[in-house]
Structures are given as structure tokens and as C-alpha cells.
Amino acid sequence: MDTDSNADEEGKMSQNLLQWTVADVASYFSAAGFPEQAMAFRTQEIDGKSLLLMQRSDVLTGLSIRLGPALKIYERHVKVLQRTHFLEYEDL
């Protein structure tokens, strides 16, 4: 049951990506299994709007996190969140 509620919560969060605070972004990455890297997002003050603007090089080099986790974060999370956001709002 907890797994379902987390999925619902993440779904709601991704619909409101523009409203995510720095704390929301850090919480998302902590919950996704990247607590150490979540601190880098907090340190660099990445909020939802900033997350939407991030490019691969920003994640790989701009956050000063190890390459392995950075690649996973970008490919499995940042890119997916961006794609989902822009697909949801392209018809507006």
C-alpha cells in the first residue's frame, strides 16, 4: 500500500514541477535513492524551474557529484521529469 501512495505522490509532484521548491527537489532525489546527491541539488539551490532547464553537462559536472550517480540521475530522473512535464504542457 505504501508503494502505491508514493507513486501517487510522485505523480502529483511531477505535474507541479514548476512549483517545486529546493526542498522538494532534494526530497525527490533522496526518496529516489540518492540522498548524498540530493544535498548537491540543495547546495546549488535547484528548484523545479531550474530542474526543467538542466542539461546533461549541468548534472554531470555542475553539481560536483560522482559520474555514476550523476548519469543515473540525469537519464532516469531529470530527463524523464523534463519529458513528462513538456509532454503534459505542450498542448496548452
TrEMBL record:
<dbReference type="GO" id="GO:0045892">
    <property type="term" value="P:negative regulation of DNA-templated transcription"/>
</dbReference>
<dbReference type="GO" id="GO:0042393">
    <property type="term" value="F:histone binding"/>
</dbReference>
<dbReference type="InterPro" id="IPR001660">
    <property type="entry name" value="SAM"/>
</dbReference>
<dbReference type="GO" id="GO:0003682">
    <property type="term" value="F:chromatin binding"/>
</dbReference>
<feature type="domain" description="SAM">
    <location>
        <begin position="20"/>
        <end position="68"/>
    </location>
</feature>
<protein>
    <recommendedName>
        <fullName>SAM domain-containing protein</fullName>
    </recommendedName>
</protein>
<dbReference type="Pfam" id="PF00536">
    <property type="entry name" value="SAM_1"/>
</dbReference>
<dbReference type="InterPro" id="IPR050548">
    <property type="entry name" value="PcG_chromatin_remod_factors"/>
</dbReference>
<dbReference type="GO" id="GO:0005634">
    <property type="term" value="C:nucleus"/>
</dbReference>
<dbReference type="InterPro" id="IPR013761">
    <property type="entry name" value="SAM/pointed_sf"/>
</dbReference>
